[in-house]
Design a protein that fits this description.
The complex is a heterodimer of chains A (306) and B (403).
Chain A (H helix, E strand, L loop, with lengths): L1 H6 L16 H29 L3 E3 L2 E3 L5 H8 L2 H33 L3 H12 L6 H12 L4 H8 L14 H11 L1 H13 L3 H9 L4 H29 L3 H6 L7 H10 L3 H27 L10
Antiparallel strand pairs in A: 1-2
Helix pairs in contact in A: 2-14, 3-14, 4-8, 4-9, 4-11, 9-11, 10-11, 13-14
Chain B lengths: L7 H30 L1 H8 L2 E6 L9 H7 L2 E6 L4 H9 L9 E5 L2 H5 L5 E2 L16 H4 L13 E9 L1 E3 L13 E2 L2 H4 L8 E4 L2 H14 L13 H16 L3 E5 L2 H9 L5 E3 L2 H11 L5 E2 L1 E2 L4 E10 L8 H11 L2 H11 L6 H10 L4 H18 L12 H13 L1
Parallel strand pairs in B: 1-2, 1-3, 7-12, 8-9, 8-10
Antiparallel strand pairs in B: 3-13, 4-13, 5-13, 6-10, 6-11
Classes of the chains: A mainly alpha (306), B alpha/beta (403).
Keywords (chain B): Signal
Protein name (chain B): PotD/PotF family extracellular solute-binding protein
InterPro entries (chain B): TAT_signal (IPR006311)
Chain lengths: 306, 403
């Protein structure tokens, strides 16, 4: 290892210069080709989306006269609140997942010594991916409803004399339904990142007198940041687009972005859909920018998988 | 079953269709040569084909009676009940190039007819033999004509939707046919917190408007096509009721209607009639009832519309045979028996059942359906999926959802 070489007092090892994979003209061509493809496939649709948000819809037909009506309509119809509510719910779920998922991933990667046990846990994490989300979600209704399992237990044990209403058809039930569904996308990338941390580093930290908390904060967290970022993105994205849990467990009282877009679409209101999407993309860019700024405090090197 | 919100049904239908197609393919591969030798199969293969696109509600569970009756095969590609998806498919994907008939709930003809996607119905087409005896209540209804009266479609099926309720919980006799007020849905202290309301604007908004208009609480011109200001009044009312805790839930799909009734999560729900029947299969006869109402119903109908391009093809006769079949007794009887839906010329359905040896109970059920629909259709307002002010209405509905 380079560190050992330096400690031994030997001359610093000169890292051999790697030959570039592609010759400069080819590399340049590849760069511009990929950039052009990126521009056409990603940026152009976003520009069109943004432009479309300045049109309106009349009687199921798009009126191509630029105006701010669609954007002002976002506020008068309460769709602006839908966007903020969606962001709030998605972020809350993501942070809860992170709070629960990180210790779990740490235990799975470094604490669980039985390979069979680890295999079983990983299987339990991945099996839900193969089951229909609607089927998994609708089960909660039978458990959380007024005549459901939990209320039956509460009533029969005398803990309450009325069914607890907020267990179902509330923001609580939407959060509750989303958390198990989005647990694997948060845990698996973090687990992968922590698995890649060399055990020698943890031992070295211990040998140098660091407490477990210091090892966690100064070694494990920075080195697992790529997994944390991936888990954050993989969880936040589906949470923003969630429609099964809000639809089935929200009882129509938790109107999120997906159902708002769907409702607009039934009237072929493409500009409203475009404005909502553009607004969310803008908010996401701000959010990810903030996230990157925060993570830079831990060191940019931790953000790559090299 | 009228699948306005149900996605699962469509998926199930799609899966079923896929499985049926795969089974058919497998069968064809295995028995291809033998099947070709069967005279019936050979006849079916030689039949003219009419390609249809629309909601599967209008489809027969088995098309073979139609093939035997009129010698035409119908291939229906199912779509969801989302009018946006349906119209996008026709306008943007130019489905008329490959499809002969479109079948959908009322409203699309007002837009797709004048814009040149539907062909005007030739009411004097020689294959349309039942047209003259079909009552104007059906053939000239808003379901198949536009506001100018142009005939864009042929009526297929219809019903008048209201709400399901538990007579015992409301202190009524189980067999009561008393006309109830929509106030049970919106305004009644006894049902507060025990009501499920559909969360689709096209289905639920008009019922609330109908209630406010009928009780004099709001001045509304056309319940099916409110202006933005009228929709705002209705939305304000609904927001007030929502905040007062009137609604236990705003449901989204047909399966939810059944579940909410069967687990007795609510006492009243604006829903499709089949949901009440399904719930009673679990809870017992007449445990829930489908209301006759004082103020009126959400009257809906499905029409069959001919693609403009189809009139240039060589199967126009076959298309009109299918349209005529939709008006006939066999289709009427089968639809009423299998799905409980009514339509034009119910008397022909009863006659068909009697002539073909159906049981007395089945004939009586057909007659009951005929009487029920006649009673309900005497009340006001026919719904549309495409109100002129859809953008304003949808905005106001969002305000209600977000309140």
């Amino acid at each position: 290892m380079t560190m050992n070489t330096e400690i031994d007092g030997a001359a610093p090892a000169v890292r051999p210069r790697r030959r570039p994979l592609l010759r400069p003209p080819v590399a340049k061509l590849a760069f511009w080709g990929i950039s052009a493809a990126w521009f056409v496939l990603v940026i152009v649709p976003l520009i069109i989306l943004f432009v479309f948000s300045f049109f309106t819809t009349e009687y199921f037909q798009t009126v191509y006269t630029p105006s701010l009506d669609t954007w002002t309509g976002l506020f008068s119809s309460g769709r602006f609140e839908v966007t903020l509510r969606t962001l709030r719910v998605a972020l809350t779920v993501t942070l809860i997942e992170l709070a629960v998922g990180f210790p779990f991933a740490l235990w799975l990667a470094k604490g669980c010594r039985s390979s069979l046990g680890r295999a079983i846990v990983l299987a339990l994490l991945t099996i839900p991916f193969f089951l229909d989300l609607s089927s998994r979600t609708i089960v909660w209704r039978a458990i959380l409803g007024q005549g459901g399992l939990i209320n039956t237990i509460l009533l029969s044990t005398g803990l309450t004399d009325q069914p607890v209403d907020w267990l179902l058809y509330s923001e609580f039930s939407v959060h509750f339904g989303m958390i198990p569904a989005l647990f694997p996308p948060m845990v698996l990338p973090i687990y992968m990142a922590i698995t890649l941390i060399d055990d020698n580093l943890l031992e070295a930290s211990n040998d140098l007198g660091a407490t477990p908390a210091q090892t966690l904060w100064r070694v494990i967290v920075p080195l697992s940041l790529p997994g944390v970022v991936a888990g954050f993105v993989f969880t936040l994205g589906p949470a923003l687009a969630a429609w099964v849990e809000p639809g089935m467990l929200g009882g129509g009282f938790v109107n999120l972005l997906s159902s708002s877009i769907e409702s607009a679409y039934t009237a072929l209101r493409y500009p409203v859909v475009a404005a909502l999407s553009a607004f969310v993309i803008g908010l996401l860019l701000v959010l990810l920018g903030l996230l990157m700024l925060i993570l830079r405090r831990f060191g940019g090197a931790g953000l790559t998988l090299r | 079953m009228k699948d306005k919100f149900s996605t699962t049904d469509q998926v199930q239908l799609t899966r079923r269709s896929l499985l049926q197609s795969m089974s058919a393919l497998a069968g064809t591969a295995a028995l291809g040569s033998a099947a070709a030798m069967l005279p019936g199969a050979a006849r079916a293969a030689d039949m003219p084909v009419v390609k249809a696109y629309g909601v599967p509600t209008a489809a027969l569970k088995d098309w073979s009676p139609m093939e035997a009756s009129i010698g035409v095969r119908c291939e229906l590609s199912g779509t969801s009940n989302d009018v946006g998806v349906f119209m996008r498919d026709i306008m943007a994907s130019n489905l008329g190039e490959s499809t002969d008939l479109f079948i959908f709930e009322s409203g699309t003809e007002d837009i797709l007819g004048p814009r040149g996607f539907y062909a005007e119905i030739e009411t004097d087409n020689p294959e349309l033999t039942l047209w003259d005896r079909t009552s104007d209540d059906w053939k000239r209804s808003d379901v198949v004509t536009d506001p100018k009266g142009t005939q864009w479609g042929v009526p297929v099926i219809g019903n008048a939707d209201s709400f399901g309720y538990f007579p015992a919980k409301l202190g009524m006799a189980p067999d009561s046919e008393e006309e109830l007020s929509w106030s049970l849905m919106f305004d009644d202290e006894n049902t507060r917190g025990r009501v499920a309301f559909g969360q689709g604007w096209a289905y639920s908004f008009p019922s609330a408007a109908l209630y406010l208009k009928s009780t004099g609480k709001a001045e509304i011109g056309n319940v099916a096509d409110m202006t933005g200001d009228e929709a705002k009044v209705v939305a304000d009312f609904l927001i007030e009721r929502k905040k007062a805790g009137q609604f236990r839930t705003l449901y989204g799909a047909f399966e939810e209607q059944i579940q909410l009734l069967t687990n007795e999560e609510v006492d009243v729900i604006n829903c499709w009639e089949p949901a009440v029947r399904e719930a009673n299969l679990v809870l017992g006869p007449d445990a829930t009832r489908y209301a006759y109402t004082k103020e009126g119903y959400f009257k809906w109908g499905h029409g069959a519309y001919v693609a403009k391009q189809a009139m240039e093809r060589d199967n126009v006769d076959a298309i009109y045979k299918v349209l005529n079949y939709f008006l006939g007794g066999e289709y009427r009887a089968l639809q009423a028996r299998d799905r409980g839906y009514a339509g034009p010329n119910m008397d022909l359905g009863v006659a068909y059942a009697e002539e073909n040896g159906w049981s007395a109970e089945e004939v009586a059920a057909l007659k009951a359906t005929e009487a029920k629909v006649a009673k309900k259709f005497s009340k006001p307002f026919v719904s549309t999926t495409t109100p002129q002010n859809s953008a304003d209405i949808e905005d106001q509905w969002q305000r209600f959802l977000n309140a």
